[in-house]
Amino acid sequence: MTLLERLGIDLPIIQAPMAGVATAELAAAVSNAGALGSLGVGATDADGARKMIAAFRERSRRSLNVNVFCHEPARADPSRESAWLEHLRPHFERVGASPPAQVKEIYRSFIEDEAMLAALVAERPQVVSFHFGVPSAARVKALQDAGIVLLASATSLSEARAAEKAGVHAIVAQGYEAGGHRGVFDADANDDCLGTVALTRLLVRQLAVPIIATGGIMDGAGIAAALRLGAEAAQLGTAFIACPESSADAGFRQALASDAAHHTMMTRAISGRPARCLPNRFTALGAGVSPQRIPAYPIAYDAGKALNAAAKAAREFGYGAQWAGQGAPLARALPAAELVRVLATELREAI
């Protein structure tokens, strides 16, 4: 069985999950067009995930990918968290607000979330994908026994081998160009920053499972290049942000269409984990800050979200998590189904 057959799709195109930006409307439009629509549920609980899946199924009977975060649970450090809030205080005050008294772990990791596991086993989406690592063998088996196809992101050969050993059906090779959170299993370990081309080719040569390339791919020519490297599909995230079905706010859309798209950068300041973002006020305040000063993920994200909410209330959009990859200047503001059709046409022309 080919990867496309296993995923239940017609085109070698996967819309990245993009927690907080991908909506049921976006995923359904992508899936109905023959690609694989995705939802990121790492930023919600089991009830929220069920509602998102139900909203997708109201709009589509095609395959759905549900993505979960498999990070190590955060270790609270009150002194570091307090110092970080003080570091952010001038920025809160700039928008007429005060920082919260304390911050907390706002997302549960899938590796310990029993309710999320039960929800996915019950709902049985066609695909479940892992980011930041892989869960225990028992959790993998539970999903496999439910007939779910499993994917896992990897940024290196060692991570990919660990995911293959865990029993996933395919690896998403996340190049350094990719927008959003870096899928590294250990955010504090050395990162070789492998690009999409090198990583994809390396994993194709070294692993037995299919490889899905992601990072900087924005059009059919990019998808064709990934296939020529040996990938069996390509995952695109930033390409779908400008679609009207995404939940990107007006400030994000404006920034994506600006010169900022040419200057994406990695930052830990927003969430506590490295992620590629459009340059804005938040990336600037994090420039030069030692990772040791930033609270653990997702505790830091609690502070980041509070600052962004206060700023947006003051009509300042420069503190958002405007995740985007290095291909951002190539983004097109098209309806999702139309974008998939354009990508398919470009792919046919390229090959």
Walk me through what this model shows:
- It is a single chain.
- Helix 9 crosses helix 13 (336-350).
- This protein has 351 residues and is an alpha/beta fold.
- Helix 3 links the parallel strand 2 and strand 3 (64-69).
- It folds into 2 domains: 3-73 and 108-247 and 328-350, Aldolase class I (TIM Barrel), CATH 3.20.20.70; 74-106 and 265-323, no CATH class.
- The strands form 2 sheets. The chain has an 8-stranded parallel beta sheet with strand order 1-9-8-6-5-4-3-2. Strands 7-11-10 form a 3-stranded antiparallel beta sheet, with no helix packed on it.
- It is built from 13 helices and 11 strands.
Number of helices: 13
User: Could you tell me the mean pLDDT?
Assistant: 97
Tell me the span between the first and last alpha carbons: 22 Å
Can you tell me the number of structural domains?
2
The low-confidence parts are none
Q: N-to-C SSE series?
A: HEHEHEHHEHEHEEHEHEHEEHHH
Number of strands: 11
Oligomeric status = single chain
Residues in β-strands, percent: 5-15%
Portion in helices: 25-40%
Strand order of the largest sheet: 1-9-8-6-5-4-3-2
What is the CATH topology of the largest domain? TIM Barrel
The CATH architecture of the largest domain:
Alpha-Beta Barrel
Using the coordinates above, name the CATH class of the largest domain.
Answer: Alpha Beta
CATH superfamily of the largest domain: Aldolase class I
**Radius of gyration of CA atoms, rounded to a whole number:** 19 Å
Biggest sheet, in brief? 8 strands, parallel
The chain-level structural class is alpha/beta
Overall, the morphology is: globular
